[in-house]
Automatic annotation (TrEMBL):
GO terms for molecular function: DNA-binding transcription factor activity; transcription cis-regulatory region binding. One of its GO terms (biological process) is negative regulation of DNA-templated transcription. It comes from the Bacteria. This is TetR/AcrR family transcriptional regulator. It comes from Peterkaempfera bronchialis. Residues 17-27 have a biased composition (Basic and acidic residues). Keywords: DNA-binding, Transcription, Transcription regulation. Residues 60-79 bind DNA. Residues 1-38 are annotated as: Disordered. Pfam families: TetR_C_1 (PF02909), TetR_N (PF00440). InterPro entries: Homeodomain-like_sf (IPR009057), HTH-type_TetR-like_transc_reg (IPR050109), HTH_TetR (IPR001647), Repressor_TetR_C (IPR004111), Tet_transcr_reg_TetR-rel_C_sf (IPR036271).
Length: 286
């Protein structure tokens, strides 16, 4: 058997044992001790707090160590590098997600007996995903950068697959249906988070910032007036209220579109069954 030299793939922090366990194994349990009062969980939670407060651009291992009241080398006892810590933080933000309860076991293969609660469950998942991304806007910039194979991400993925499996869709369409919903959520939440951050940095409310953008657009191009009037309710109802209405309408479009596909698949299957029951077509006698 080849000697373990402590080399691990660097594609994801989740594909390697925690750093402290590797350090202990290499030293045979002897040698330097872990810094008192620290743990990987505490470091990750502190990283999330700093990322929420200051953003991704301002985050550094030195700043994190200062916040924890330790030296940077103490942090590196538990994480190899900043990338590993960011990937751990990306999973940590999913900790408080309220996921719907989905029955254990495989779904009924008969579309007529599909779980009729799945649209509400899918909507609940979508709303929670949006909440997390808006609460932690830095996370939208990290998705796709890291594999995020952590336990909380896996739990979310398992729940999403279990929900869509109970819709009655054929398995080969699960991924496409989930991509429709969650890529929409990602885009919507990313834009929402950027807009809120822009308002915060300018010292204006969201409605004040919209007024500035509206007036500037009208002055820049008079042709925009017609299009701007189409979103006039934003000026009278408020950006937040209209955004919530837009989100729910768009989510309905996605969920109802999946429901329509389920219905179409069932009707196609029923039509095929009737055609099969009628037997082969007969040719007219000559």
């Amino acid at each position: 058997m080849a000697e373990d030299k402590g080399h691990y793939p660097h594609t994801s922090v989740w594909l390697r044992p925690p750093r402290e366990s590797r350090t202990e194994r290499r030293s045979g349990g002897r040698g330097s001790q872990a810094p008192a009062g620290l743990s990987r969980d505490r470091i990750v939670r502190a990283a999330v707090r700093l990322l929420d407060a200051d953003g991704l651009a301002a985050f550094s291992m030195r700043r994190l160590a200062a916040d924890l009241g330790v030296t940077p080398m103490s942090v590196y006892w538990y994480v190899d590098n900043k990338d590993d810590l960011l990937e751990l933080a990306l999973d940590e933000v999913l900790a408080d997600m309220a996921l719907p309860e989905v029955p254990d076991g495989p779904p009924d293969p008969d579309p007529d007996r599909a779980d009729h609660d799945w649209p509400q469950q899918l909507r609940a998942l979508a709303r929670e995903w949006r909440r997390v991304l808006v609460a932690h806007p830095w996370a939208t910039r990290l998705h796709g950068t890291y594999l995020n194979l952590g336990p909380r991400s896996a739990r979310f993925s398992r729940t999403a697959i279990a929900v869509i499996a109970r819709s009655g869709l054929p398995p080969e369409q699960y991924a496409g249906a989930l991509s429709l919903v969650f890529q929409f959520i990602y885009g919507f939440a990313t834009t929402e988070g950027h807009w809120r951050e822009r308002a915060r940095l300018t010292g204006a409310t969201e409605d004040e910032l919209y007024e500035i953008a509206y007036d500037t657009a009208v002055r820049t191009d008079a042709g925009l007036v017609l299009h701007a009037e189409l979103v006039q309710p934003r000026r009278t109802e408020g950006v937040g209220a209209v955004r919530e209405r837009d989100f729910e309408h768009a989510l309905d479009c996605a969920v109802l579109g999946i429901h329509a596909m389920v219905t179409a698949a069932r009707l196609t299957a029923e039509a095929g069954g009737r055609a099969g029951a009628a037997g082969p077509a007969r040719t007219a006698p000559r």
